[in-house]
Task: inverse folding
């Protein structure tokens, strides 16, 4: 008797073909700083892409062609909407009709500075409840080592069949640097680690369609750790530069001059610069995902905790610089008019998440200072529930301030004008040129 049962479906071949022909239907969960540029990159590559987000206002804006991410111009979004290659929705039902699902939701810290993995869990459960054979799921959110295999794998395994045959699961960290015009999402090599070799190949095939190079690693954990190592590297080196600047102050030396001199070495040195602290959703946060996991393994990640301590001591250091500078001018914090230039966590963008500006402004106000701020990328600012007055950087505002405090070195600021009209300037970014007149004082970090 001949076997009449149909041939089993070869999901790997079918999905690979959909990816290679750019007909695979993609859903990117989370349309923030990471998910939106990624969705747009795939859509520009010809894939039909849906951006899924729980934030109704964000989805309404995206669906009408208004981008909230500076790296994604609204015109680009509008063209993709018009071409039918991008759409935005809050309806998770779209996951059931997707061939590829990429998860780009936040991974913040909880109140006790432990990982808050709740967004990844919720998004993964949404996807797992609708999973069907023939899908590729990739987690891009930065997270602790083991998340893909410990959290996602059981969810998808329970619903989707055999991983590596029916369903493909991988981790691929996002490495974009918002505001960096030289390296956008399509320019940066992707690291990919699948749960099985077939999962890795599937995810590598997908990203290979939009980036110049894909680096496959043996497991999702290697890929998760690669991302954390990159950001621990930055965090630790920023902490080193911060502590170095404090030491240089004791020695009466300008730290920037030393770092610039060291940076002339063409090998074995990469310059990092001091600042008022660290901010953003990544550098202050991600290393703590690793140290948390290491604590569970009975190991204390010493470099990470030292760097965290030093970086978080910088707002206090900036306050003492301002206090000393006011004092030297015969002034006190109480009643001093302080103009803060830049409140975003880094230059050229409007992201204020974890920005040290909050801690510094809150402390200045507690001490009785009258604080205003200017930031071309941040139109309104609330600190501890109270608004901060936003001003333009005019000659009058600069002259009116008892102290101009540069926290973020946005390229839009006219630093020569700051030097010309500021009476007392505390510059944490080394952007204000040396004063050529005798009326003011410039203090650098
Ligand atoms: N911002 C960066 O520069 C950067 C760079 C590399 C990696 N990352 C990592 O990428 C991840 C995302 O970061 P981001 O900066 O894009 O965050 P974001 O806050 O800008 O965007 C996240 C989006 O996810 C949405 N969201 C949350 N839960 C959801 C759910 N269950 N379903 C659908 N949408 C949901 C939110 O509404 C928000 O729009 C984080 O893990 C972060 O560490 C960020």
Result:
């Amino acid at each position: 008797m001949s076997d009449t049962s149909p041939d089993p479906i070869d999901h790997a071949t079918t999905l690979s073909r959909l990816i290679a022909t750019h007909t695979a239907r993609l859903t990117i969960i989370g349309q923030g700083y990471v998910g939106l540029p990624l969705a747009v990159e795939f859509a520009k590559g010809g894939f039909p892409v849906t951006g899924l987000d729980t934030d109704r206002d964000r989805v309404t804006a995206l669906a009408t062609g208004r981008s909230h991410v500076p790296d994604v111009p609204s015109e680009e979004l509008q063209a993709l909407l018009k071409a039918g290659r991008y759409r935005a929705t809050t309806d998770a039902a779209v996951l059931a009709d997707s061939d590829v699902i990429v998860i780009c939701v936040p991974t913040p810290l909880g109140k006790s500075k432990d990982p808050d993995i709740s967004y990844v869990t919720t998004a993964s459960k949404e996807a797992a409840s609708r999973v069907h054979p023939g899908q590729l799921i990739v987690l891009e959110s930065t997270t602790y080592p083991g998340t893909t295999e410990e959290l996602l794998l059981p969810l998808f395994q329970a619903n989707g069949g055999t991983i590596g045959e029916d369903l493909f699961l991988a981790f691929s960290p996002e490495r974009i640097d918002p505001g960096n015009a030289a390296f956008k999402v399509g320019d940066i090599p992707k690291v990919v680690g699948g749960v099985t070799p077939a999962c890795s190949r599937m995810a590598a095939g997908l990203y290979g369609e939009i980036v110049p190079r894909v680096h496959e690693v043996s497991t999702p954990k290697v890929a998760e750790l690669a991302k954390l190592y990159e950001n621990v590297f930055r965090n630790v080196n920023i902490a080193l530069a911060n502590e170095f600047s404090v030491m240089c102050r004791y020695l009466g030396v300008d730290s920037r001059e030393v770092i610039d001199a060291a940076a002339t070495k063409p090998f074995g040195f990469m310059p990092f610069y001091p600042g008022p602290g660290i901010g953003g959703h990544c550098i202050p946060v991600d290393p703590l995902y690793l140290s948390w996991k290491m604590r569970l393994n009975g190991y204390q990640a010493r470099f990470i905790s030292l760097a965290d301590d030093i970086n978080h001591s910088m707002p206090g250091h900036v306050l003492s610089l301002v206090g000393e500078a006011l004092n030297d001018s015969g002034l006190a914090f109480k009643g001093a008019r302080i103009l803060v230039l830049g409140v975003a966590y880094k230059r050229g963008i409007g992201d204020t998440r974890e920005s040290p500006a909050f801690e510094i402004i809150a402390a200045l106000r507690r001490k009785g200072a009258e604080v205003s701020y200017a930031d071309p990328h941040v139109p309104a600012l609330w600190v501890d529930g109270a608004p901060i007055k936003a001003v333009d950087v005019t000659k009058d505002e600069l002259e009116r301030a008892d102290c101009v405090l540069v926290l973020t070195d946005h390229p839009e600021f006219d630093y020569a004008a700051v030097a010309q009209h500021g009476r007392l300037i505390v510059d944490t970014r080394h952007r204000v040129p040396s004063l050529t007149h005798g009326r003011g004082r410039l203090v650098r970090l």
Notes: The pocket of nicotinamide-adenine-dinucleotide is lined by residues 29-35, 52-55, 58, 104-107, 119, 122-123, 126, 141-142, 174-176, 178, 281-282 (CB under 6 Å).
